[in-house]
Amino acid sequence: MLILDADRTRAALDFGRLVPALRGAFAGQATVPARHVHTVGAGEEKGTVLIMPAWSDAGFLGIKTVNIYPANGTRGLPGLHATYVLYDARTGVPLAQIDGNEITARRTAAAAALGADFLAREDASTLLVLGTGRVAQLLPQAHASVRPIRRLRVWNHRAEGARTLAAQWRAAGWEAEAVDDLGAAVKGADIVSCATLANAPLVRGEWLAPGSHLDLIGSFTPAMTEADPACFANARVFVDTDEAPAKAGDLLDAFAAGTLAVEDIEANLAQLCRGERPGRRTTDERTVFKAVGSALEDLAAATLVWRSVEA
Q: How much is the average pLDDT of 19-46?
């Protein structure tokens, strides 16, 4: 079994290849059982472990284990740690252990970009990122692979983290700045992309401009939420998979508040990628994309990494 470290995994997953790979995966056929979710307690600290399997007709089976500990930020540690093992689906033989953190971060950012490719305005150029973690750091590259992103804004509940990330983006050649006034930043953004582990709403519906696209990719449990229920009112709402309405706190809160009903959700990524449902239709409509992540995305990314090694 090959051991593929973060550098080799990252090298195979540039967004120019990964976003189309996800598009092909959602348009194709694969078996994706519901994830297993468990709460882990060790003393006063609590975390969540996710076990996410998937397999495809192409002959690959992948299993990802993800450990999420939101309090890690206070220790200077990432809140998420993942491992990924790829197998031959025909024999069960292990093929590779692939860096799960890179797979998770890059496929999550790529899924956000895939959603934006269907839902953001064609001329969307100002991107506001909420969060400063692994996924947040990748969002400019991901969105720039599908839209003409020129201006970056970043907000974080710890302002120093936002200033540090903005400086890193400027050093990489972006026009970037940290913001303290979140409401004003949301009002001025074409795409608002949330990649946090928040358990209380950050974005308010009254801040979102006509024609904007709200991308919610951080929260993935009923207790987590990044947007208040008003964000879903008078918007066209899309999800990554049909698991989202049962697992996303953002959606569950909107259902409870009456600003969204399950039947109001317009499409999932598979329906968009297969051309079964339309994406954005007008320049002034407001769109929302809610993702909780899918093992299909992990498998598509891992397959891309494996094929790059085979080549």
A: 89
CATH topology of domain 109-294: Rossmann fold (3.40.50)
Q: Top-level CATH class of 2-103+296-310?
A: alpha beta
Q: Where are the domains of the chain?
A: 2-103+296-310, 109-294
Residue pointed to by tokens 């969540």: 48
Both tokens of 46, joined, read 């609590």
Mean pLDDT across 184-200: 96
- What's the CA gap between 165 and 169, in Å, rounded? 6
What is the pairing mode between strands 60-68 and 236-239?
Answer: unpaired
Place of tokens 């934006």: 116
Query: Residue 311 pLDDT > 70, yes or no?
Result: no
Please answer whether residues 233 and 253 qualify as being in contact, where contact means their C-beta atoms are separated by less than 8 angstroms: no
Q: Which DSSP category does 188 fall into?
A: T
**DSSP 8-class letter at 15:** H
* Distance separating alpha carbons of residues 299 and 129, to the nearest angstrom: 26
pLDDT digits (tens, 9 = 90+) for 127-160: 999 999 999 999 999 999 999 999 999 999 999 9
Arithmetic mean of pLDDT over the chain: 95
Query: Which residue is associated with the tokens 């709200």?
Result: 214
Tell me how far apart the alpha carbons of residues 67 and 60 are, in angstroms, rounded to a whole number. 23
User: Same fold for the domain at 2-103+296-310 and the one at 109-294?
Assistant: no
Answer for the pair 142, 301: CB distance below 8 angstroms, yes or no.
no
Q: Give the model's pLDDT for residue 309.
A: 86
Closest by alpha carbon to 239, among 115, 57, 90, 59?
115
Residue 269: its pLDDT value, please?
97
**pLDDT of 253-285, one tens digit each?**
999 999 999 999 999 999 999 999 999 999 999
The closest alpha carbon to 305, from 81, 92, 100, belongs to 100
Contact (Cβ atoms closer than 8 angstroms) between residue 279 and residue 118: yes
Q: Strand 30-31 to strand 45-56: parallel, antiparallel, or no bridges (unpaired)?
A: antiparallel
